[in-house]
């Protein structure tokens, strides 16, 4: 039935026999094509989500092989767990600071690259800013660890030449999170620069021409033409960046291991450590559930805000 | 158009040159450190350039660990993941774009929804499933969960929907089967999208750190991101070794990126704009 609607315009009555046969073929094709794909999605995406929710009500360690149903115990324990509460705070601090700085920096750099009139130069800059984004984050994290090294790292060498006392970048509670934020920004701004340049390129010249006729200067153009018309890109960029920074893991695990004093123990690292270092999988799953709820709420809020600003 | 102002143009250019150079410093540091000798590092003079350039670090990487094996593990798993993901994405995209069946919308929404699930949420059960399948420490543990991509299915569906139905019907009347139709007609038409997805998939597979960290413990079965951490643990002091490994691991992705840059950038903007 659906088939005849879909192909209605082209297949004439004379092909009726053929179409019924190919309809049968199509039905089998759909089944055979989707079966393995849905099996993979089922086993490695749908099932784990349900299992994770379930596991959060159990006391489970892979070493003992005995899962004990404990109801809400994991969740009530979480609320009293100072390390967990701190990791929540650190995660929000990290995501907030890093996302806002990322968007400001990438918007400035993308506008600057867009303003370049020579095409190859434009491409060159885009490539240079993008290169860090393709390197393995684990490698980048290790390179930065040596750059931030107290005794021989580049940063302290430069400070030394300026006669400033060296800094314990990764072990001083004041600087540890900041250090990881710097590294994350370095490794990640390429993506949003590319997206902002593309967003800017898709804005028609006529808006600018009209604004200039009305006497707008460069700042007016940026704040009253470019920014409002970049809203769609902005929404996309913010959502993807927020989700990806919530999941930031290699840099924390490699550079600071959550130290000093849990100043860098983000939720993602906390879940990993509880599950795979402490074999506390039920408890880690409860954290994962809270993590999931946070991501869903944050995404929903962003969609709402984004939609509201479109409709204005 | 905007008024031209040579002053502003040169300020913008200088700003970009300075920031771009600053962006390249960590790479310069990585390469330069990889050529330092132990002496250079131990003496702690902190000179930026090596006083006695040497390949010592690179030799140690190959002598101390099965580095070639790790490269091979990474390459083979990334290639298999990429090829199969492209195939499953195109196939599912075709089915969702051009076929009707019961539960189609629900299934598609479910698949899309998995895009928003952070990996940390599903990693524990995924580990338990992989363990039950007896795949811990096998490359299959890296490959199997990564053969489908919800993002790939979504992209493929968007692009296949734009292919005119007439074209497909004409081929069907000529007697082409569904699979042939997909490979001969649809795949070439969505090639730009497939190549973008392919590069993304390859790089993500090559760079993946968290999942291999969970399922690969045996030194022989590691992939290269784990190798870095291995060297970082065993050569804390001699970071020329660690930096040499970092150079060797970063180089392949850089080369792949520089070759396919155009498709990559196009693919990136495609997702943001669609």
Automatic annotation (TrEMBL), chain A:
Keywords: Cell membrane, Membrane, Transmembrane, Transmembrane helix, Transport. InterPro entries: ABC_transporter_permease, MetI-like, MetI-like_sf. It is found in: Cell membrane. One of its GO terms (cellular component) is plasma membrane. The chain crosses the membrane at residues 28-54, 94-116, 128-147, 175-198, 219-246, 283-303. Signal peptide: none annotated. It is a multi-pass membrane protein. GO terms for biological process: transmembrane transport. The keyword Heme does not apply. PROSITE patterns: ABC_TM1. Its main location: membrane. CDD domains: TM_PBP2. Residues 88-302 form the ABC transmembrane type-1 domain. The keyword Nucleus does not apply. Belongs to the binding-protein-dependent transport system permease family. This is Sugar ABC transporter permease. It comes from Paenibacillus kyungheensis.
TrEMBL record, chain B:
It is found in: Cell membrane. SUPFAM superfamilies: MetI-like. Its main location: membrane. It is a multi-pass membrane protein. Pfam families: BPD_transp_1. One of its GO terms (cellular component) is plasma membrane. Residues 71-260 form the ABC transmembrane type-1 domain. Belongs to the binding-protein-dependent transport system permease family. This is Carbohydrate ABC transporter permease. The lineage of its organism: Bacteria, Bacillati, Bacillota, Bacilli, Bacillales.
């Amino acid at each position: 039935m659906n088939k005849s609607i879909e192909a209605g315009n082209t297949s004439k009555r004379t092909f009726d026999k053929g179409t019924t046969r190919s309809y049968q073929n199509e039905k089998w094709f759909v089944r055979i094509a989707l079966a393995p794909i849905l099996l993979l999605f089922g086993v490695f995406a749908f099932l784990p989500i349900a299992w994770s929710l379930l596991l959060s009500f159990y006391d489970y360690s892979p070493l003992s092989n005995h899962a004990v149903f404990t109801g809400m115990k994991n969740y009530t324990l979480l609320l009293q767990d100072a390390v967990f509460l701190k990791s929540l705070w650190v995660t929000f601090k990290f995501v907030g600071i890093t996302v806002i700085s990322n968007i400001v920096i990438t918007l400035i750099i993308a506008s600057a690259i867009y303003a370049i009139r020579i095409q190859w130069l434009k491409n060159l800059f885009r490539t240079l800013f993008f290169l860090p984004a393709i390197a393995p984050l684990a490698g980048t994290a290790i390179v930065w660890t040596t750059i931030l090294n107290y005794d021989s790292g580049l940063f302290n060498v430069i400070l030394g030449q300026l006669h400033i006392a060296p800094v314990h970048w990764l072990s001083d509670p004041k600087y540890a999170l900041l250090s990881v934020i710097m590294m994350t920004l370095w490794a990640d701004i390429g993506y949003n620069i590319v997206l902002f340049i593309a967003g800017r390129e898709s804005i028609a010249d006529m808006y600018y021409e009209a604004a200039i006729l009305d006497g707008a200067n460069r700042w007016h153009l940026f704040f009253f033409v470019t920014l409002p018309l970049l809203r769609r890109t902005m929404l996309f960029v913010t959502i993807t960046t927020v989700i990806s920074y919530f999941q930031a893991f290699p840099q924390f695990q490699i550079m600071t291991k959550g130290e000093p004093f849990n100043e860098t123990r983000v939720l993602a690292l906390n879940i990993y450590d509880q599950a795979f270092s402490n074999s506390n999988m039920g408890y880690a799953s409860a954290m994962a559930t809270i993590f999931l709820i946070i991501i869903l709420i944050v995404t929903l809020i962003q969609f709402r805000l984004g939609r509201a600003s479109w409709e204005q | 158009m905007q008024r031209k102002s040579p002053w502003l143009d040169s300020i913008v250019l200088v700003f970009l040159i300075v920031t771009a150079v600053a962006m390249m410093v960590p790479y310069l540091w990585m390469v330069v450190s990889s050529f330092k000798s132990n002496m250079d590092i131990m003496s702690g003079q902190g000179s930026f350039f090596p006083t006695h350039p040497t390949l010592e670090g690179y030799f140690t990487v190959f002598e101390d660990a099965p580095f070639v094996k790790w490269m091979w593990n990474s390459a083979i798993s990334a290639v298999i993941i990429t090829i199969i993901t492209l195939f499953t994405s195109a196939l599912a995209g075709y089915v969702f774009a051009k076929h009707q069946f019961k539960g189609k919308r629900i299934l598609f929404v479910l698949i899309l929804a998995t895009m928003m699930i952070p990996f940390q949420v599903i990693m524990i059960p995924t580990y338990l499933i992989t363990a039950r399948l007896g795949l811990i420490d096998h490359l299959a543990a890296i490959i199997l969960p990564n053969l489908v991509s919800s993002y790939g299915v979504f992209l493929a569906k968007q692009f296949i929907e734009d292919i005119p139905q007439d074209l497909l019907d004409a081929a069907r009347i000529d007697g082409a089967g569904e699979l042939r139709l997909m490979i001969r007609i649809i795949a070439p038409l969505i090639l730009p999208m497939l190549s973008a997805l392919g590069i993304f998939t390859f790089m993500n597979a090559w760079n993946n750190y968290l999942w291999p960290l969970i399922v690969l413990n045996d030194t022989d079965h590691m992939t290269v991101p784990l190798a870095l951490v291995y060297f970082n643990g065993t050569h804390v002091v001699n970071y020329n070794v660690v930096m040499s490994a970092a150079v060797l691991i970063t180089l392949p992705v850089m080369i792949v990126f520089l070759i396919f840059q155009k498709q990559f950038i196009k693919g990136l903007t495609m997702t943001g704009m669609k």
